[in-house]
Amino acid sequence: MCGIVGAVAQRDVAEILVEGLRRLEYRGYDSAGVAVVDAQSNLQRVRRLGKVQELADAVESSHLVGGTGIAHTRWATHGEPSEANAHPHMSGENIALVHNGIIENHEELRAMLIERGYTFVSQTDTEVIAHLVEWELRSASTLLEAVKKTVAQLEGAYGTVVMDRRDPERVVVARSGSPLVIGLGVGENFLASDQLALLNVTRRFIFLEEGDVAEITRREVNIFDENGQAVEREVHESNLQQDAADKGQFRHYMQKEIYEQPAALSNTMEGRIGNDSVIVESIGNGAKDILANVEHVQIVACGTSYNAGMVARYWFEAMTGVSCDVEIASEFRYRKFVTRPNSLLITLSQSGETADTLAALRLAKEKGYMSAMTICNVAGSSLVRESDLAFMTRAGTEIGVASTKAFTTQLVTLLMFVTALGKEKGLIDEAKEKEIVASLHQLPVQIEKALAFDKPIEQLAEDFADKHHALFLGRGEFYPIAVEASLKLKEISYIHAEAYAAGELKHGPLALIDADMPVIVVAPTNDLLEKLKSNIEEVRARGGLLYVFADSEAGFEESEGMKIITMPRVDDIIAPIFYTVPMQLLSYHVALIKGTDVDQPRNLAKAVTVE
């Protein structure tokens, strides 16, 4: 995920900008750059391929001086990772800008600008914005006016910051589908794609809204909405911790990471969905051609990532008509398998270094797979480097061994990919795509609602204090959610837990049912609800102790032996992601009661880099 930092101040800002980029390194990137202009209109730009430290060393030796500047970490989409493609980009000697997101009509704009005499020196979509601003500034009276005219011509997602060396005391920012935040100082102001970048210089923030354009100077921030009207945006006081490795107000990293999920999911979707569509280009270079030819999907993963793949299988086959198999990497790599024509291999991994998954990728390349894509959280990891496409989850640093936000961001990434695949193959029409995207936009707020059940679930967890076994049930795409829930409980509480597709109860698991075996059921209102109710009755008839997580429309009534946890109604497509959160909270609170090491459960490691 790209990171943006900017400043307008009296002091030299180069070190502040580079430090801001350091704080965004967790997002993943392949190059970094900074541009600074001083009061005499001298502009210096430094860009480097690789880590922020490479940039920091170059900035130190370049002696950058100036109070206005912009900086950026880039993850390649258009054009390979290189210094030439790194941000900031320039038009001539005057205009410099940074940009997050993807400009969908960049090819059309590029052709128009070439006709106007502009020369392109990069392969990026971002450079078209720089040249457009320069063109509009020829007739506009201010940089603000030029940027407004420019963004009116852009299609896609962008968070962009522009400066003109001839006007060194201001920058102009614009936001559409890619967040930007303004940090308020004393006699100086800042901006970034994430407030974490600025916590060392300010705690007061303004979050720009969709369509906003803002002009920032040392002493003023003027914001205009999508209709061009001057508006006031609320100032927020942040209490976030500066260090991602700091638990802050939370007792454990796992708890912190559960609560980070609304922000993490927003980061996952940033620049990848517009108001009503998925931006296919955000998947990576060549994605359109690959998706158009996919006839089969093979997902390979381990542990929690495998469970995410199992959910996605339902989405792939129901929504796109493309067949999908999901296999545990340690099994896939050691069996003889048949490679189907035009198969896409998808590897899922939080770390990108999971040994069995990496071995499976290398084997698949030998077996004639059409292409390989990884869904991963760590830029520069082996899976990312060795795959044809890398669709980053952008979950941020996850320290707790039991994965939480990495799992839900994988699900969101997979759902966006499924939608893109169906779109490219003509199997998901505009109306369906708009419906899915609308649900995704709602998801962070819905997850906040799920987190509001923390206290009731904490009380519920007390019932598990003396339990040694638990059974989780679900049907359809909620079966793998039940599997993930059972994995979380066993990982951090050491309770023996299993999960079954509810229809399988009568084929064996009913023998386990008694008053000492809690049965946790994921039961949202959907087409399989009535079938699931029959399975629940099978448990009740045998004296089982039921805990049913259902929405208000499901029609459950609490009775002896059956507790109902009534959740808000959410759209069917995002319900598996939503219902994951209460399961995480339940496991966390049971582990607290059991007194286990929540963040570092026995015998487990965060990244499994051995076979």
From TrEMBL:
Residues 279-427, 460-601 form the SIS domain. The active site is at C2 (nucleophile), K606 (for fru-6p isomerization activity). InterPro entries: GATase_2_dom, GFAT, GFAT_N, GlmS/AgaS_SIS, GlmS/FrlB_SIS, Ntn_hydrolases_N, SIS_dom, SIS_dom_sf. Residues 2-219 form the Glutamine amidotransferase type-2 domain. It is found in: Cytoplasm. Its EC number is 2.6.1.16. It catalyses: D-fructose 6-phosphate + L-glutamine = D-glucosamine 6-phosphate + L-glutamate. Its main location: cytoplasm. The keyword Nucleotidyltransferase does not apply. SUPFAM superfamilies: N-terminal nucleophile aminohydrolases (Ntn hydrolases), SIS domain. One of its GO terms (molecular function) is carbohydrate derivative binding. One of its GO terms (cellular component) is cytosol. GO terms for biological process: carbohydrate metabolic process; fructose 6-phosphate metabolic process; protein N-linked glycosylation; UDP-N-acetylglucosamine metabolic process. It comes from the Bacteria. Keywords: Aminotransferase, Cytoplasm, Glutamine amidotransferase, Repeat, Transferase. It is an enzyme of class 2 (transferase). Catalyzes the first step in hexosamine metabolism, converting fructose-6P into glucosamine-6P using glutamine as a nitrogen source. Homodimer. This is Glutamine--fructose-6-phosphate aminotransferase [isomerizing]. It comes from Photobacterium marinum. The gene is glmS.
